[in-house]
Structures are given as structure tokens and as C-alpha cells.
Amino acid sequence: MALRCIIWTFRTKPLYRTIGTDSEEPTSPKSYSIGQVAADALELTNNARGIGWNWSKGLYIPEETRPTHSRIAFILSTIPYYLFATIIFDSCHFAVQSFSPSTFGSGVGGTIFDSTLPPLQMYLRSTAITLLSGFTVCYNIQSLYYGFTIISLTLPLGQTPEQWPPIFGAKPWSATSLSEFWSRKWHQLFRDLFVSVGYNPASYLFGHAAGVAAAFFVSTLLHVTGLWGMGRGGEFLCTAAFFMSNAFGIILERLWTRVTGRRVEGVWGNVWTLAWLLMSAQPLVDAWARTGMIGTLFFSERLRPVNLISRAVLGYNVWS
User: Fold this and answer.
1) Does residue 220 contact residue 243 with C-beta atoms inside 8 Å?
2) Which is nearest to 166 in space by CA: 57, 80, 66?
3) CA terminus-to-terminus distance, the chain
4) Distances from the Cα of 191 to the Cα of 25, 36, 49, 198, angstroms
5) Which tens digits make up the pLDDT trace of 95-133?
6) How many CB atoms lie under 10 A from the CB of residue 42?
């Protein structure tokens, strides 16, 4: 909200709703009821991507595969996505917690680097934890998003299916460059914040590379603040190591294209992207683990999806 207030303060044109991507700015003033003003304020405060508003220009929206002609059909087609994302999210979360249930698998916290293991085994273990943590975050966000999609379209809030397109690009792990991963595959919920507060002013003053670095620095601050809320420190250096290294990786990709005339893409681009993400994310995941964030409880023991499935198949809970 603080970043949005900064963005709105320095806007030179008013914010207005749009029907399509080619909508023109209203040329004549309109009168609004108090209810409409309140609805617009609520929408502006909570609409992360700006879908349906003029400030979402340049936003990448993944292709929609669900039927949008009918609200009921859209809701019914979203339910399987919600259930699938929730089960995968909880299964990956369970797998991560199972590596050490008494330390980072709980609220106690602990490092993902087991110093009692030989170096190769220690880093293979931490890499596996990092990979599973990435899937956990990805499907957790999708589960929440699909859940809010169903609620928002079921309640009389005036929402339409077009306002709830997919939040992630298809198969984020298939990205063939860091640029593609962060701009098209990963969610774009905070894009406007990073671009408006970070990239735009820095690139205007110092060029594209500085803009990229500034955008990822704003992302660092946002994620540090969230981690600081755990009450065990913000882990600034670990968080910055991940986001700023990805800014550096994107700058390297641009430099590669300039020098060779070829874009980072294809199979080797995918290998490069996954390797960079897995290496750079380990300090961040370790920070999550040490602050107890990985031990977060999203469900009660009785209602946890992995327990519901294990009780149906095995007759007992696999996690308690």
C-alpha cells in the first residue's frame, strides 16, 4: 500500500476502468455515486495486476483455457484447478518438512545445510529442498488465487471471469531464460510496484541495467518485510542474494545477446535458467527455514490434504 501511494502520487494521468486493451481515456468528466467511488477505491487497493484498469498497460496475461462465457461454467472449471493446486502444494510442503520435522519442518526452525553430511550430499539435499520449496510456493499461490477466484465470482461482487485470468504462465519450470521466467512464467502480482518504483526511475537516470537492478531491489525489500514479520529478523543479505543475483543474471543474458547476436533460449537456456534459480535460491530458502517459515501450518492436522489422502489409502495420518 505504501508503494502504491507513491505511484499514485506521481501519476500525471487519472486512473480509470477499461473494457478492453484498446479503450481510450475518457474525454469528458463523469459523475459517480458514493457507492461507485467506494467500489473503485476497493478495487484499486486490492487489484494487484490492474486488470480492467488503464495502469495495467504492458502486463503479460497468460492464455485462458477456461470458458469465460458463463460465470457458472468458469467457476466449475476452476474447482479442479483449485483442488489440484492445493494437493500439489501440500504434498510438496509435506516433502520439504519431512527432511527435518523437528527443526525447519516445525516452527522451531533450522538450516537446510546439514553439516554432518559430506559436501556433495549436503548440497544435493539442500538443492532438493530448494526445488521442492519452489514448487510449494508456486502451487500455494495458485491454490490461494483459485480459491479467491471461486469466492469472488460466487459472491455478488460484480466480478467477471475476464478479471480472473491465470496467474502463472504455463509450466514455469520450462522457462528458457531468466528474462522469460520473471516476465512471463512467474506471477506478475507485484509487477507495477517493481516497474513504477524501481525500474522506471532508475532506467531513466542510469539505463536499462540499473532499472533491472532497481526492480529486483524493490522486490528484495518487499520480501524482506514479509520475512521480518516472522519476528526473527528480516534476513536482508540472504534475500538480496537471491533477487539481486537474478537481476545480474538477466543483465548477463542481455549482454550475451548483444555480443553473440543470439538470444538465450532452447534446451540449454532452460538448463541455464533452472541451474541459476536453484543455486541462487538456496540462501533464501535457508533463511525461510531458519526463521521457521517452512514450518507454517496451513491446515489443521485432520484437514491437511496429505492426511486426507493417506487416511483414505493407508488408514492413518502421515503427518502429525
Assistant:
1) yes
2) 66
3) 37
4) 22, 26, 7, 10
5) 999 999 999 999 899 999 999 999 999 999 999 999 999
6) 11
